[in-house]
Amino acid sequence: MKITLLSASITGSKSRLALEDAKKYLLKHAPVAEITLLDLKEMTILFADGRNYVDYPADTGILTKNLMDADIIVIATPTFQASIPGTLKNVFDLLPQQAFFHKIVSLIISAGSPKHFLMAENQLKPILHYMKANTLPNYLFIEEQDFANGTIINSEVHRRLNNLMEETIVLFDAYQTIWQKQKK
């Protein structure tokens, strides 16, 4: 099982912090998983220009290959201007339309205000569904007040993050059974 964790912003640290905790929980629920954390802040990503995802060089090629090879993708993203960051939209534009076919995608959303909690439902999930992702019905929404001193300080957020990662693995296992039956 290959899991890619994507921190989808080139600014801030909250997405990365959430993914580092998510990785701990994933290892608890899937100890043999191969987990890769990709932080767009640490990469130089080209703008999508229409070429095939395998033709992008360097960091952009590493990003697209990891996402295409993953069985599970956990995307952590901040909310900018009540929407997804342009860097995340660019990641989607780098990939083919059906890039997430037979992949499980979980979401961790952070925002400075609870007013933006529906960004995932109204903007991000429609894009993922268009790209054929199997998304969990729920996602984790983390507010500014849940962070302090470079950590998540809200124990309820930790509980919900652990549950989300457990549900991600359970959904992956369930879909594997279904997809195996389809092949027969």
TrEMBL record:
It comes from the Bacteria. Transmembrane segments: none annotated. Keywords: Flavoprotein, FMN, Oxidoreductase. It holds the Pfam family FMN_red. Residues 1-144 form the NADPH-dependent FMN reductase-like domain. InterPro entries: FMN_Rdtase-like_dom, NAD(P)H-dep_FMN_reductase. This is NAD(P)H-dependent oxidoreductase. It comes from Enterococcus alishanensis. The lineage of its organism: Bacteria, Bacillati, Bacillota, Bacilli, Lactobacillales.
